[in-house]
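Objective 1b of the project was to move from sequence-level analysis to a structural picture of ligand recognition. The entry below was assembled by the postdoctoral researcher (A.K.) and checked by the PI before modelling. It contains the amino acid sequence of the target and the SMILES of the bound compound, 2-acetamido-2-deoxy-beta-D-glucopyranose.
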Amino acid sequence: MGLLRSLVMMLLLIWFLWLPGHRAQLPNSEHELDALLQNYAYKALVRPKTGLPYDGDVPPDLIGIKVAALRLRSGSLRRKGVPMYKEFEIPVGVIERPYVERLVLVYQNLGNWSERYYSLAGYTHLAPVLGLLAYNASNLSATNLPVLDIRASGDPLTIKFSDVKSVPDGFVAMCVWFDLQGNPNFSNVASGNECSTIQQGHFAIVVNSTAFPPPSREHGKKNKSKVWIIVGSVLGGLLLLVLLLFLVLWVHKLKERKKMQQMERAADVGEALQMTSVGETKAPAAMVTRTQPTLENEYVP
Ligand SMILES: *[C@@H]1O[C@H](CO)[C@@H](O)[C@H](O)[C@H]1NC(C)=O
Ligand SMILES: *[C@@H]1O[C@H](CO)[C@@H](O)[C@H](O)[C@H]1NC(C)=O
Ligand SMILES: *[C@@H]1O[C@H](CO)[C@@H](O)[C@H](O)[C@H]1NC(C)=O
Ligand SMILES: *[C@@H]1O[C@H](CO)[C@@H](O)[C@H](O)[C@H]1NC(C)=O
Ligand SMILES: *[C@@H]1O[C@H](CO)[C@@H](O)[C@H](O)[C@H]1NC(C)=O
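Corresponding predicted holo structure:
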């Protein structure tokens, strides 16, 4: 019996591990993703030096995304800018609103997650989405911080994308800036890989995708595999249920047979006869091997 029980437990365990609900919940929106990445970027700031960028870790479910955090005094940002922070060139004259004494610039590189969170119907990304968002640096363990509004009062910020896919002949690459609500706004690419901005947000280089296989195909593939996972786990679950049912029935039968054997043995030895009620009266009964005792009056018409 111990073996059977552990077998059942093991089957149940395998089934639970199979269920897709086991995976952690991914952020549902750009906004939720920003909040999560702020949290993870801030974790990299353990006794940080002002003006040095620190790379953060992302949760295992979001592998492919890179984050970093840079803590600055507000005055230093305005007077000196940041010559190079990853792909961002921040000129002098950038001010934040509302004013904070120190701020953290959170950098995001969404890598292969770009299309998932910043897909643009009719366009294909040629470079990953990069984000630059400013937050209050007063409390480095704070979460769900509001994004500060940063604005270039002089020259704009420049974004120098590093791995831009080549543009197909006859098509023109565009810079796209997504505001905090995710609304896109297009501008021209400079020097093949540069975009500029006067404020915070997310940036990418895209091309009108009529030249590419429609991205919906990839989407469909993903959806299909999702459907297959669900169908697979439901079928797997049903199969396991049926197996379990058989197991339970088998165990039940085994138990009954054992009981019966015991009873037969007991009857043969002639001790501890089980009493069964037959009609109104009690009579000794030894099942199967003997004919059932019946009351004579039952035969009387
Ligand atoms: C991005 O790539 C990583 C592995 O490099 C993978 O685990 C992850 O699922 C990918 N993300 C998407 C949205 O495809
Ligand atoms: C893409 O380009 C084609 C032709 O150049 C144009 O007809 C179409 O409207 C464009 N699509 C988008 C989404 O801009
Ligand atoms: C920044 O955070 C500190 C401490 O949490 C708070 O006192 C201050 O009001 C915040 N500043 C802004 C502009 O939110
Ligand atoms: C910083 O934020 C954390 C998390 O919200 C909070 O528990 C803590 O009290 C805050 N510290 C200060 C000094 O405001
Ligand atoms: C988008 O860009 C155009 C000019 O390129 C500008 O007129 C418009 O105000 C911008 N939209 C937003 C929401 O900033």
